[in-house]
Specification:
This protein has 880 residues and is an alpha+beta fold. 40% of the residues lie in helices and 22% in strands. The protein has an 8-stranded mixed sheet, with no helix packed on it. A hairpin with a 3-residue loop joins strand 6 and strand 7. Helix 1 packs parallel to helix 28. The N and C termini lie close together (8 Å). The structure holds zinc ion.
Length: 880
């Protein structure tokens, strides 16, 4: 039960893993709960063909009042009843072909006995009138006493199987239907649903009725209903309406963040050879969303965190494009062609993740795409729990199927497939796959078959190892040069443990050998545990690159001399190879040549990702010369995405007044808000003199969306000065901006640990409606180590509202607190060091103190909160 949480702490060690951390934390935030009895697609009794869904809302009681008419066709002879999924809804009346019908309900089903046994092909119109207060699936975000000015919003989140909490229906992906959605709402509201807007009409009593019609079939988890007070910006692509919506008052943020959508639609339509398949494309951004984004057919819902303030948006190299291109990509992969069961969800998520990279390489350039892929591969290797699980699997007992294999590894596998068979063959196969399976549900074999049919390339072995098998190759590499034979002897060992679903890999690899006369490329295929490849080389190599460009998902330990790494950092043509060199050089301590080379990369590399990596590495090396180079770099006019790394790296050098002075000046004034935030954080980490005053001033400083204030609030925890407590209590209180509250709660967790009033205050936030506040409070209590919080957490476990979805997380924190109380009485602050969790955490070579751990966590949270906006995070929790 605590496994996912263990996993989180096990990630805290390393820099590039914050995405994985975010995804895991999000597991608990998003958490639509699976209810399916088994992980395979259901057998069907009927084909649901069309649903006419009419909804009204009781805003006071947060209730939905619905009438739905399902048109369905029976699939087998002798069908005596029709069962719909329905949870927590009060069914008032059911008619079958307009005649009143009997019905019964269970916790998860509405069952309607038919008057007589039906035959295959018999058609029925079943109308259900119902009402209910949805526990999930539909969310009411309305003004309240703490947030009286908040724009009203009602929105739904169907995936994976939550639609039936607000609509009795067939709630599994393996059926497809068209819809009419008829929404009656206050006249000043806007609604968004699937398909075309047919009409908006006066419904009397200050209400209007919006009528939407979707004529392209899709699965019920892709049904969407959004209603509320929104601003709207209209755009178009090839005559198709493209519309963006923001909660009222934030419409000015739409163009800068979302304006590239039509260009993405054009790119994907051309690449796939299948045009964008829906009648319109809407993206509606909502507050308190339980996911980063959701690709409802023709009408994506995204978190309003993606509406970055226009003054901050230019500080992010790729903006919100990862999220936007991901959800758009799903409109083909997920919506037009849908996984048959969740075990094949990588066919949705792997493609969508891959398509982020396709947009990135086209719009932002190859270096950026390569840098992101290099990071993504590192992240995947850091996620130890993903290692022994295949991408395609049906054993979800203790983990989520929406995991880093379906997303990150799935995307990398598609990238490898494209690299191996070539761009042209890949997209011809993709076109065939989309055309053959358009409007259908698919399993992984359908993709393999499409590649074979379109290109006559058999990919069975590739699919077997990468999709049905687990793990990835780990290589131990070295070479010798034979001057007589003019030959490089490249030795390759596969060192991954062969067990379970992890086998030996067969991979084609590009090897580049550079000598004085220039580079030469060789293709070798590695397939055994130990192999030696003789490769011609006129003279002793200056550089040997195995898997040049880093196309294969792998880890590699290449035994090279320092001078070759130095040469590689400076001369390798591909980002991945220069990145590998920077990382390798970072392990060579106290070497001025290394520091100088990293300084050169920091100043001169053409890819900003390598410059940022060089800055991080100089910070880790921690020598006086390294800090000098970083300080000097601060005087240049670096872009914010590099500058923030430089500033952050300076937070590793203790007791250097010159650095503190510089950080103070950046914190107070700089062109980049990201750099200023990084400076505040670095000062806190260094526990610099007067840091308290600097942070205190930043809390009141004027910055877009309180960006600096939130950075300061987050940093008080690592500064560790208890006099911040009153300020943090003030900013954690209801009514303050949500981002400020979560930042303050994170810091409160680490201060005045023996003060039970603070614990009680944090515990009070457990029952709030805001997901992020709740999550922050739950974690803060667990990390704080004060066992007096246990009853509050236990009460939360028993509540029957949304927080029930966070059960595994809450249970984990309770266990953590109890262990602390049992194990080391009187030593609350040591709680984080007890139990399995820390065993996993300190499973690495370095054993960190609680304080170091929390500092790292705090840094990760900072980065995470920046990245969360572009993260899709709708991951269900481990099954109960
Ligand atoms: Zn997705």
């Amino acid at each position: 039960m605590t496994r996912e949480r263990l996993h989180i702490t096990s990630h805290v060690r390393s820099r590039p893993v914050f995405l994985a951390l975010a995804a895991l934390l999000a597991t608990f935030v998003a958490a639509p709960q699976l209810f399916a009895d088994d992980p395979y697609a259901r057998s069907r009794d009927y084909d649901l063909q069309h649903s006419k869904i009419a909804l009204r809302f009781n805003l006071e009681q947060k209730k939905v009042l619905g009438e739905v008419t399902h048109s369905l066709s029976v699939l087998r002879d002798g069908t005596a009843k029709i069962a719909f999924d329905s949870a927590g809804l009060t069914i008032q009346k059911v008619t079958v072909n307009k005649a009143a019908a009997k019905f019964e309900t269970t916790a998860e089903k509405l069952i309607i006995p038919l008057a007589s046994e039906a035959k295959a092909g018999d058609k029925f119109d079943i109308t259900i009138r119902y009402e209910g207060k949805p526990a999930k699936g539909m969310y009411f975000i309305l003004p309240d006493k703490d947030y009286p000015d908040r724009p009203s919003q009602i929105w739904t989140q169907g995936e994976s199987e939550d639609t039936h909490y607000y609509l009795p229906t067939y709630d599994y992906p393996n059926d497809r239907l068209t819809t009419e959605t008829i929404l009656t709402v206050p006249a000043s509201w806007i609604t968004v649903s699937n398909g075309k807007l047919i009409s908006v009409s006066d419904a009397g009593k200050g209400l209007k009725t919006w009528y939407w019609k979707e004529s392209v079939p899709s699965s019920t988890y892709l049904i969407t209903v959004v209603a509320g007070e929104f601003d709207e910006v209209k755009d178009t692509w090839r005559g198709i309406p493209v519309t963006y919506y923001a909660p009222k008052g934030r419409g000015d943020r739409l163009p800068i963040n979302y304006g590239r959508t039509p260009a993405m639609m054009e790119l994907f339509s051309k690449k796939f050879g299948v045009d964008y398949p829906w009648e319109k494309y809407a993206q509606v951004m909502v507050d308190d969303f339980v996911a980063g984004g959701m690709e409802n057919s023709s009408a994506t819902t995204n978190t309003s965190k993606s509406l970055v303030h226009p003054k901050l948006a230019p500080e992010y190299f790729t903006g919100e494009d990862d999220l936007i291109s991901h959800e758009l990509g799903h409109q083909w992969f997920g919506d037009l062609v849908t996984c048959k069961d969740w075990g094949d969800v990588w066919l949705n998520e792997g493609f969508a993740t891959f398509l982020e990279a396709v947009w990135t390489e086209t719009h932002f350039g190859k270096d950026q795409a390569d840098y992101e892929r290099w990071n993504s591969a590192h992240e995947w290797f850091e996620s130890a729990s993903l290692w022994n699980k295949p991408i395609v699997r049906h054993d979800f007992d203790d983990s989520s199927e929406f995991d880093g294999n379906a997303y990150g590894k799935g995307g990398l596998v598609l990238y490898m497939l494209r690299h191996q068979i070539g761009e042209d063959a890949f997209y011809r196969a993709v076109k065939h796959y989309l055309e053959v399976n358009r409007g259908k549900n698919v399993v992984t074999a359908d993709l393999a078959k499409a590649v074979e049919e379109a290109m006559h390339i058999n990919v069975d072995q590739f699919f077997s190892q990468w999709l049905y098998g687990a793990g990835a190759p780990k290589f131990d590499l070295g070479y010798t040069y034979d001057p007589e034979k003019h030959q490089v002897m490249l030795s390759v060992k596969q060192t991954q443990k062969i067990e379970g679903r992890v086998g030996l890999f067969r991979v084609p690899v590009d090897v580049e050998i550079t000598t004085a006369t220039g580079p030469k490329l060789y293709n070798v295929t590695v397939s055994k545990d130990k192999q030696t490849f003789p490769l011609a080389a006129e003279s002793a190599p200056l550089m040997v690159l195995f898997d040049m460009g880093g196309h294969v998902l792998k880890s590699a330990d290449f035994h090279k001399e320092k001078k070759e790494w130095l040469y590689q950092l400076k001369n390798a043509s591909e980002v991945a190879d220069r990145g590998d060199a920077a990382v390798a050089l970072g392990k060579i301590r106290n070497d001025e040549e290394v520091v100088a080379a990293l300084g050169d990369a920091l100043r001169n590399d053409k890819a900003w990702g390598i410059r940022a990596t060089a800055a991080d590495t100089l910070g880790q090396l921690g020598t006086a010369s390294a800090s000098k180079l970083l300080l000097a770099e601060l005087d240049s006019r670096d872009a914010p995405w590099v500058r923030s790394h430089v500033v952050s790296a300076l937070g590793s050098f203790k007791d250097d007044p010159a650095i503190v002075t510089k950080l103070n000046s950046v914190a107070k004034q700089d062109d980049s808000y990201r750099a200023r935030a990084a400076a505040l954080q670095a000062l806190g980490r260094l526990k610099a003199p007067a840091a308290f005053a600097t942070l205190d001033a930043a809390v009141t400083a004027d910055s877009p969306d309180g960006f600096l204030r939130n950075a300061a609030l987050r940093t008080f925890g690592s500064l560790g000065d208890d006099k911040a407590v009153p300020l943090l209590l003030q900013w954690s209180a209801p009514g303050k901006p949500i981002d400020s509250r979560t930042a303050a709660i994170n810091s409160l967790a680490r201060l005045q640990k023996d003060n039970q009033d603070v614990t009680k205050q944090i515990a009070d936030y457990l029952t709030e409606p805001h997901f992020s506040v709740r999550m922050a409070a739950i974690y803060a209590l667990g990390g704080r180590g004060d066992a007096t919080a246990v009853p509050a957490l236990e009460a939360l476990l028993k509540s029957d509202d949304l927080s029930i979805e966070m059960m595994p997380m809450i249970k984990g924190q309770i266990a953590r607190l109890k262990k602390a109380a049992d194990g080391k009485p009187g030593s609350a602050s040591s709680s984080a060091d007890t139990g399995e969790e820390s065993a996993e955490y300190t499973g690495s070579s370095e054993k960190l103190s609680t304080e170091q751990r929390l500092e790292k966590l705090e840094r990760l949270l900072q980065e995470m909160s920046e990245r969360l906006k572009s993260m899709e995070k709708r991951l269900p929790p481990p099954k109960q």
